[in-house]
Amino acid sequence: MKTLLRSLVASFLAVLARGIVKKYQPTIVMVTGSVGKTSTKDAVAAALSERYFLRASEKSYNSEFGVPLTIIGARNPWENTTAWLKVIQEALTLILLPNHYPKLLVLEVGADRPGDLAKILAIATPDAVVVTRLPEVPVHVEAYAGPQAVREEEFRPAYALASGCPLIISADDDYARDMAKRLSANVIRVGYAEDADVLIQALQFTKEGMKAVVVSCGKKHNIAAAHALGRTQLYAPAMALALASTLHMTADEALEGLSKYSPPPGRARILKGKRDSVLIDDSYNASPAAVEEALAALSQIQASRRIVAIGDMLELGRYSVSEHKRIGVLVAKHADVLITVGPRAQALRESAIASGMEESKTWGFETSIEAAHALLEEVSEGDVVLIKGSQGVRMERITEVLLQDPADVRHLVRQDKEWKKR
After folding, report:
1. Which of 57, 116, 216, 318 has the most CB atoms in a 10 Å sphere around its CB?
2. Torsion angle, alpha carbons of 92, 95, 97, 100, to 10
3. What's the rounded Cα separation, in Å, for the pair 5 and 79?
4. Helix (H) or strand (E) holding 390
5. How many whole angstroms from its chain centre is CA 414?
6. What is the pLDDT of residues 363-386, one digit of tens each?
7. How many CA atoms does the CB half-sphere of 383 hold within 13 Å?
8. Is the distance from CB of 282 to CB of 386 less than 8 angstroms?
9. d(Cα 277, Cα 125) in Å, to the nearest integer?
10. Does domain 2-258 have CATH number 3.40.1190.10?
11. pLDDT at residue 125 above 70?
């Protein structure tokens, strides 16, 4: 019954959202991919805000519910019936009465299972698409026939583009490059590869976050990802800059908007921890590719000890054991201390020990709360702690316990009342 009701509500929301798009005909930018969508969506919105009256998806509203709610301009009512009625009222008001509606929508779109993006594309057709990374083993792969099926699903918005429309992809992603060859879109490759149309170079790791230079059309521009760590953090502002140029904005306009951009909570955010430690809060979610990048970033930081607190990587299906073991090998190379949370991460811990990590420097826990209190006793001055895991493991609870300043909880993910109840 609950599944049927959910389906009916989603279908009704889709009808309302489709009516709003048809009436106001905003320019639609879709951000898709398996990793880094929310950061990229936020960067795109920041870059375009200097020119356009726009609206962007809140947080990670990228589902069959999140996208219509963004189009309507409403927040998630969760299980509040009265709030749902207000959402419907807002939507009907937009459809039936004149309103001052945004000229551009930046929509983050995602898929948990086959057909999810087809439902979203039935609501709105993109005028421009940004595709983030499409890794070897993507998240949600357990719901698909295999990794390529996930990549095809995530790439679906690009297939919906009309000829000549902007398609921004990673120059370092062979899967995206191959799929883009099928299209007549205006493909712009962004990244570290030498043949990138927008080339990221002169990378700097700083205490304030990441900095780099991008070269586009022979001109150099400075970009940054404040308060975050890792080379992947710079894809978002670089892709935003590339997209802005296709929408007839100057680089100065886009960079002015990007000066206000900061990666969202839970994405390799640098925070102050207890006893003068440093926390890298990457607790929003975890896929093998994202964990690999986070470990590479951790290796760039000077520290007394590098501590990795990592939870289960979920929704990997038949790849779960092999990917946890593979990441365990990498942890042994990059970390001094390992804390794992959840039953799947136990294979990661065992792999790290088998790869040379001292067993006495590893601990496994069932919950993030248990791990948090153990780490609270362990962390000391000069330590750098990387905190990462899939959403269901709730690794942000570890970050919250380790924060030097409790007020910094505002920088963490899943702090809404509805999430705190779970």
Report:
1. 57
2. 110
3. 12
4. none
5. 14
6. 999 999 999 999 999 999 999 999
7. 23
8. yes
9. 47
10. yes
11. yes
In the chain, domain spans: 2-258, 269-420
Listed in order, strand segments (DSSP E) in 148-304 are 166-170, 186-191, 198-206, 209-216, 219-226, 269-273, 277-282
The span from the CA of 403 to the CA of 99, in Å, is: 44
- Is 269-420 a CATH 3.90.180.10 domain? no
pLDDT digits (tens, 9 = 90+) for 148-206: 999 999 999 999 999 999 999 999 999 999 999 999 999 999 999 999 999 999 999 88
Q: How far apart are CA 145 and CA 391, in angstroms?
A: 23
Question: Residues 200, 191: contact at Cβ < 8 Å?
Answer: yes
Prediction pTM value? 0.94
One-letter-per-residue 3-state SS of 252-293: HHHHHHHCCCCCCCCCCEEEEEHHHEEEEEECCCCCHHHHHH
Q: In what order do the strands lie in the sheet with 269-273?
A: 269-273, 277-282, 383-388, 305-311, 337-341, 362-365
**Average pLDDT of the residues in 251-272:** 95
